[in-house]
Amino acid sequence: MTGVHKERLLKLSTFLREKVPDEHFDLRFIVGQRLEDNDVGYGKEAFAALPLVASGTQRGCGAVACAIGWCPAAFPDNWIWEDSDRHSVRLLDAQEGGDDDDFSYAEEFFGLDESESRLLFMPSSYPGYGESATRHDVAQRIEGFVASK
Fold it and tell me: What is the secondary structure of 81-129 as a DSSP string?
C-alpha cells in the first residue's frame, strides 16, 4: 500500500519499547485505569496521569493506554489526550468530515487501511483478545508490518 507512514510507525514502535513502562500499557483500552484482578476500565483520572507518566514524573498510578493511546506522548505536535464520548485521543489536524474515533485517527495519521489498523492495534487480533499482549508484542508486530511494506 502506498501512503503508509513507515517512519511514524517505527517511531511509535521505538516509543513503546523505550518509554512506556510495562505497568502503564494495556492493549485492551485506548486510555483507562487498572482495576482489581488486572482488569481495566474507564478512569477519568488517567487523562491527567498519562502526561506525567510519559514525562517520567509519575509511576504506579494505575493509568494505562494502548499503542494508540500513547500517540499523544510519542507525537505531541500531532495528537492530544481528550476525554469525549467518541474518542480518548484526538489527531489535531484530522481531515474534515472523517470519522471521529481513535482508530480512524490512527488510520489517517499512519496511512493505514482499516484491516491494517486492526491488525496492528485491535486487541482481537492478538491472542487472548490482547489481555496478555505487551508493548513489546505490539512493537514487534509494527516492525514486522513495516518490514513487509
Answer: E---SS-SEEETTPPTTS--SHHHHHHHHHT--HHHHHHHH-GGGSGGG
Span between the terminal Cα atoms of the chain, in Å: 7
Dihedrals phi, psi of 97, to nearest 5 degrees: 85, 0
Residue 50 contacts residue 57 (beta carbons within 8 Å): no
- Residues 6+ away with beta carbon under 8 Å from 70: 12, 15, 16, 20, 25, 50, 54
Residue labelled with grid coordinates 494495556: 26
Identify which of 8, 1, 63, 11 has the alpha carbon closest to the alpha carbon of residue 32: 63
Task: Please state, in angstroms and as integers, the Cα–Cα distance from residue 40 to each residue in 29, 62, 64, 133, following that order.
Answer: 7, 9, 8, 14
Per-residue pLDDT of the chain (149 residues; tens, 9 = 90+): 357 899 999 999 999 999 999 999 999 888 988 887 767 777 788 888 999 999 988 888 888 999 999 999 999 999 999 887 767 898 998 877 666 778 999 999 999 999 999 999 999 999 877 778 999 999 999 999 999 98
Place of cell 511494506: 149
